[in-house]
Design a protein that fits this description.
The protein is mainly alpha-helical. About 80% of the residues lie in helices and about 5% in strands. The chain has a three-stranded mixed β-sheet.
Length: about 300
């Protein structure tokens, strides 16, 4: 039996009434925090000509990705937390799933490019300027976005072709797995492509970041330079921590779709996958990058002086 209704119900979070508004305001705080910080970084980099360098192009990509990924997810999630009627149209659900998977895919690819950038800066500083030019970084960024959009378009395209026999999203948000679970048709092709997509994305990002960080560690160990070690630790540790948070929360989300007994843990992991890196990226990269930090401090000092 096929359902023609365009309205879907969302299961949402199963929380006690006394925790409804604390959770809502917590998510609201995180959302406003990431919006203000990421827009601030974008505006600063665009306005300051001295920051028009390859590394800051990657920062802009991260900020744009974080803003899009979280804006598609969090406002609607917060509305459903305080609402007794949790509904969404099928079209809106597809758009949310598309942007959410694009966010995840682009995050992996951009962080992989950043790992290569850090490798060149630390291990080949004399060649860095000639290899990692603005043109090269813009080309790599465009490729990352293009490949993400292509892979996710196929992923979601395979799902929207299916007829629906259910109208309840067994989740707090829309993703590809929740969408194809609405169908009673054979979803073997969706599972096969989803597995291919996940393995390709994770193996490439883990491989690139693993190899570049191994080479950075090897160079630091052989050269035994305290200055080089400090620079590598300062620039790489935060990048690695953010990547590991994103990696494991993403792993949990995918794995827990196979274990329906832990729905709330899956929902929390998915939100952490979006919210934590988006809030930490501007803080860590903004304060650990000397030029960007100097500009932020300079602007803050002007504001204080003005008052």
């Amino acid at each position: 039996m096929s359902i023609s209704s365009d309205i879907l119900q969302i299961e949402g979070f199963r929380i006690s009434p006394e925790f409804t508004y604390p959770l809502f305001f917590l998510l609201l705080f995180f959302y406003f925090s990431l919006v203000i910080s990421n827009i601030g970084v974008l505006v600063l980099i665009i306005r300051e000509k001295s920051l028009h360098q390859p590394m800051y192009v990657l920062f802009c990509n991260l900020s744009v990705n974080d803003l899009i990924g979280n804006t598609v997810l969090l406002p609607q999630l917060m509305a459903h937390i305080i609402s007794t009627r949790r509904v969404i149209t099928y079209g809106q659900c597809v758009v949310q799933a598309f942007h959410s998977h694009t966010f995840g895919s682009a995050s992996h690819m951009i962080l992989s490019i950043m790992a290569v950038d850090r490798y060149m800066a630390i291990c080949h500083p004399m060649r860095y300027g000639s290899v990692m030019t603005s043109r090269v970084v813009i080309g790599l960024s465009a490729s990352a976005w293009g490949l993400s959009l292509l892979l996710v378009s196929i992923l979601i395209g395979l799902t929207v072709r299916l007829s629906r026999c259910r109208s309840v999203i067994q989740n707090a948000y829309c993703d590809n797995a929740s969408l194809f679970k609405l169908s009673c048709e054979d979803v073997s092709l969706n599972n096969i492509y989803g597995l291919f997509f996940t393995v390709l994305l994770f193996s490439c990002s883990i491989g690139i970041i693993g190899v570049t960080y191994f080479k950075i560690a090897l160079v630091c160990w052989t050269r035994k330079s305290k200055e080089l070690n400090n620079r590598a630790l300062q620039t790489c540790a935060s990048h690695l921590v953010l990547y590991l948070i994103m990696l494991w929360s993403g792993f949990l989300t995918i794995i827990l779709h196979r274990f329906p007994d832990y729905p709330d843990l899956r929902k929390i992991a998915y939100i952490l996958f979006h919210v934590v890196p988006a809030n930490l990226n501007p803080i860590i990269y903004g304060m650990q990058t000397r030029s960007l930090r100097a500009k932020i401090i300079q602007i803050l000092q002007r504001k204080v002086t003005a008052f």
